[in-house]
Structure formats: C-alpha cells, structure tokens
Write a structure and sequence with these properties.
The chain is of the alpha+beta class. Helices cover 44% and strands 13% of the residues.
Length: 252
C-alpha cells in the first residue's frame, strides 16, 4: 500500500485532471482510495476537485464512520457508493466518479456502451453497462451498484454520470479517460451514419492478446458482430444500393 501522503497527492492530482478535462464541473465528482484494509481516503464535499489541498482529504472506515477530517470539511454523501464498491470487490483499491459529458449523455439516453468498437476498450474494459437510476445522497446509490459492480470495472450511472475502478488511483482514472474516449468516438460514428462493430474472429484474437499480456480487467466482453449479423449487414447494404439504382433509373 502507498503512504497516506502519496495517496492524498494522487487524489489531488487526479481531481485536477478531471476538472481540467471537463469531466466534472463546480463541486461535482468523488475520488477515493483504500489506505489499508480498514481505512479509506476520500475527497471532501462541497469543494471543487480541481483545487484541493492535502488537509481537505478525509478519512473514513469501510463501514462509513468518519475517522479524520479537518475543520470545515466532510466526506461526500456519495462515499456510500465508493464503500459499497470496496465491499463487493476486494481487488479494487480506488474509485473515481465523474460526469464526463459524452459518457454521461449515453447514461442519460439510456444507451449502454456495450458494443465491440475499439480494440483498446475490448482489451481493457469490455462491456460498459448502465446502473439503475438512484437518488443522490441516499441508500439507493450503493444499492444500484451493489450487484452490477461485481462483474464490471466501469459503469454508467443512469441520469448521473460514470464510475470507474482500479487497483490504484491512476488505473481508475485512466479507465475514466478510456470510457469518455469511447463514448465520444461512438457518438461521432453514429453522427456519421455508420458504426462498424468488430466481428467475433477479431474479438477472439484480442482476447488472446489480453491473456498473453495479462492485461488487467475482469468485465464481461462487449457485443461483437457474429456471422448472421454480417450477412444481415450485407443484405441491408445490397438492398440500399438496389433502391438507389432503381431511383436513378426512374429519374432518367
């Protein structure tokens, strides 16, 4: 385990990056990391995560009891969600919650990022589902992620934002970057009118690479394009071309 000083420094740095990249606004977002088997360091409530100082970081127990806090600072009410993740996943030591615009747009639209589109995401995150909507600051929030976090390393939170996890703070943060990058590219591809989903053969090769290189990540694999879907895509393309040809013949 890293020292308390180093973890606080990493939390501050990651908060700054989240704010600079526009993944959070105002006092949004939360960051947490296990200090040891019983204690967690977390960001304070009501403070911009882009401008934190070491004395603002709070310490809580895994059951939510505040252990150490500077005067005027307290843990976010959403610490409950972080603690639930730690309880359900012993392999997870850090959690990042933010509102990256593209990923949050998918969460608001109710569209999971579960298609095999980018090789990098197949290798690292796999499928990214949407956890049910939960009222912030209530017990609904940990309940919403309780079961789903057991299988996934990254989640969209319905009408709320996104949550990523990692063995350390930087892995959790980089997964947030990857998630937002995927969401933005997916959005732009849809705007262009086409999104090619990787076929099963390509996905199987990527999974072989993942195993060979021991790339971390335990989430279920994303949805690939099987042979039947490929045939349907081809038929659809032929149908569209045929319609265009008929239109041109009629107009000539």
């Amino acid at each position: 385990m890293a020292s308390e000083f180093n973890i606080k420094s990493d939390i501050i740095e990651i908060g700054r990056r989240l704010w600079q990249r526009g993944f959070i606004a105002s006092n949004d977002g939360n960051i947490s990391s296990k200090l040891n088997k019983e204690e967690v360091l977390a960001t304070p409530s009501g403070i911009s995560k882009g401008f934190m100082k070491p004395e603002m970081i709070v310490k809580v127990s895994l059951d939510g009891k505040v252990l150490k806090v500077s005067e005027g600072y307290k843990p976010s009410s959403e610490i409950k969600m972080h603690l639930e993740v730690f309880r359900q996943r012993k392999d997870i030591h850090a959690v990042v919650h933010a509102h990256p615009p593209y990923a949050t747009a998918f969460a608001v639209a109710g569209i999971p990022l579960d298609k095999c589109v980018l090789p990098e995401v197949v290798l690292t995150l796999g499928s990214i589902p949407i956890a049910p909507y939960a009222t912030p600051s209530t017990e609904e929030v940990p309940q919403a992620v309780r079961d789903i976090i057991k299988q996934y390393d990254a989640l969209l939170l319905a009408n709320h934002g996104a949550l990523t996890t990692g063995k350390d703070l930087y892995e959790a943060y980089y997964r947030m970057e990857t998630l937002e990058h995927l969401a933005q590219i997916t959005f732009l591809a849809v705007q262009l009118g086409n999104m090619n989903i990787l076929p099963k053969q390509a996905v199987d090769k990527l999974l072989d690479v993942k195993r060979e290189l021991a790339i971390p990540g335990t989430g279920p694999i994303c949805q690939y394009r099987d042979k039947k879907q490929t045939e349907e895509d081809t038929e659809s393309m032929i149908s569209k071309i045929t319609e265009e040809v008929i239109k041109k013949i009629k107009s000539s």
